[in-house]
Every structure is written in structure tokens, then in C-alpha cells.
Amino acid sequence: xxxxxxxxxxxxxxxxxxxxxxxxxxxxxxxxxxxxxxxxxxxxxxxxxxxxxxxxxxxxxxxxxxxxxxxxxxxxxxxxxxxxxxxxxxxxxxxxxxxxxxxxxxx
Length: 107
What we know:
Layout lengths: L3 H19 L2 E2 H10 L7 H13 L3 E8 L2 E9 L1 H24 L4
Antiparallel strand pairs: 1-3, 2-3
Helix pairs in contact: 1-4, 2-3
């Protein structure tokens, strides 16, 4: 059977794009947001590589900003390509979710 970690790996990119889409945010805050939504297994060591990958794909960009609470933080923002990717993710997710709901009878 599929490992939950493997399933999450593919879905986290879309979730992270949506978190960034909602407001400027930084890595640790993204982790905390995911945990707050129930992704208890998510750690900084799983989120930061995704952020690096999204930035390399030009789906997000970052800006270093001062923090009231300590050192500078890298804040992330969606690019136009990132917004398009997010819309594609949402469409795909809804289709996959619908198909799975059909198989399991809407459970």
C-alpha cells in the first residue's frame, strides 16, 4: 500500500502554493500553517526543499525582509506562472477527489 509520505509529497506543492497565494509568508510559517491544517508529519526539512524546487521552477520568488522578532526572513510570493500552476493543481485535485469519492461512495 502507498506510504502516506509519498502521497503527501505530490500534494504539498499545491498546498504550499495556496498558502503563499493567500499572503506573504516565510518557511517556518508555512510549516506551522500546514501543521495547523492537520499535516502533523510535515517538518521544515520537508518544506524547504519544496520551496527551493518551486523557486527553481519560477513558480515563486523570495525577498529578504527584516523581522521584528530576530534575523532577516525570506518571504515568498507567487509568480504568474505559480498562479497558473496553482489553478491547474486545483482543477486536477478536484477531478481526482471526485473520482476517489465515486469509488468509495462519497465516504
